[in-house]
């Protein structure tokens, strides 16, 4: 199997880098300065135990990749970029006949819970991947993955539910590459649990922390709204105890030589000046479900609105104290 990583940022770069290091065939797809660095100097993957330079083939557009029957597409872009990526890749021809949307498995290695449904409009074989993978992408060509001994935990299963041989083969490959990769017939239950934890992403992006007292209290309120909404909607989610028991001591944050302090994906988007942020598909998911099921979500509405304003205005992460949020 060859892995085409569509969006080789923090998550995609860490997955692709680890798979390549373990001997699997990988192509990284990126844009702009990041693509140029990958093409010319390889992927620099920093972990607590090593600083690696990996000569992984890179492409900057779908037309630069000749798709094969044994390819697996790993979608790792932010949700706000999902539709454009799906449209660009679904119609691409595959050697031997058919298109990517008709023939190839697509793995949604993304935060949020709407990507799989969007993908199923264009791809026949869609898989959810619940991403527990702290990683950072702050400079072109460089990915920092601070967890050890395992780099991350990636549940994988068919969407909307079930498992198959493809999921098991992908999981087996990931297990060779410093990942815990449970095959889960209820993968969306794990992704909704991850959604609850991701509600704190906007808090960290806006205030600079999700753990300092004022910020932690705000994050807890956002999560409580999320739990209430999911219960009102009848949506199952894995408990924090389940998640912690599975991770155990196999994923511990450790210092990375030359690395920056760990921050979440939304913080990183503001730091890079990306111009957009995931809040509509994290906090906004809870807001939408709350409106559908009659649950008020004022904290998540505030976080969604403020995070989007920060992204539009190019505000630096951490430039507003929790007490100043209105």
TrEMBL record:
- From which domain of life does this come? Bacteria
What sequence ranges are listed for the domain Ketopantoate reductase C-terminal? 186-306
Q: Domain Ketopantoate reductase N-terminal: where?
A: 4-143
Q: What is the protein named?
A: 2-dehydropantoate 2-reductase N-terminal domain-containing protein
């Amino acid at each position: 199997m060859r892995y085409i990583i569509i969006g080789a940022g923090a998550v995609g770069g860490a997955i692709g880098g680890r798979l390549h290091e373990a001997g699997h065939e990988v192509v990284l797809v990126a844009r702009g300065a990041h693509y140029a660095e990958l093409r010319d100097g390889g992927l620099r993957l920093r972990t607590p135990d090593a600083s690696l330079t990996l000569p992984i083939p890179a492409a900057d557009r779908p037309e630069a990749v000749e798709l094969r029957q044994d390819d697996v597409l790993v979608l790792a872009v932010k949700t706000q970029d999902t539709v454009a990526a799906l449209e660009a890749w679904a119609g691409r021809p595959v050697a031997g006949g058919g298109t990517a949307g008709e023939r190839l498995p697509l793995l949604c290695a993304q935060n949020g819970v709407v990507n799989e449904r969007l993908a199923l409009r264009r791809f026949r074989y869609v898989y959810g991947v619940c991403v527990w993978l702290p990683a950072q992408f702050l400079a072109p060509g460089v990915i920092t993955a601070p967890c050890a001994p395992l780099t991350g935990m990636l549940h994988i299963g068919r969407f909307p539910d079930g498992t198959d041989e493809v999921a098991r083969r992908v999981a087996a490959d990931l297990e060779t590459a410093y990942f815990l990769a449970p095959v889960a017939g209820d993968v969306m239950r794990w992704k909704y649990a991850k959604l609850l934890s991701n509600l704190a992403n906007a808090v960290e992006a806006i205030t600079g922390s999700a753990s300092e007292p004022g910020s932690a209290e705000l994050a807890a309120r956002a999560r409580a709204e999320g739990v209430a909404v999911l219960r009102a909607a009848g949506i199952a989610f894995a408990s924090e105890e389940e998640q912690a028991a599975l991770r155990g001591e196999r994923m511990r944050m450790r210092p990375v030589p030359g690395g920056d302090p760990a921050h979440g994906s939304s913080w990183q988007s503001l730091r890079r000046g990306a111009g957009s942020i995931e809040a509509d598909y994290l906090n906004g998911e809870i807001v939408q479900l709350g409106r559908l099921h009659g649950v008020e979500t004022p904290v998540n509405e505030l976080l969604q609105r403020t995070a989007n304003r920060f992204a539009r205005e190019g505000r630096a992460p951490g430039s507003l104290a929790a007490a100043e949020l209105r």
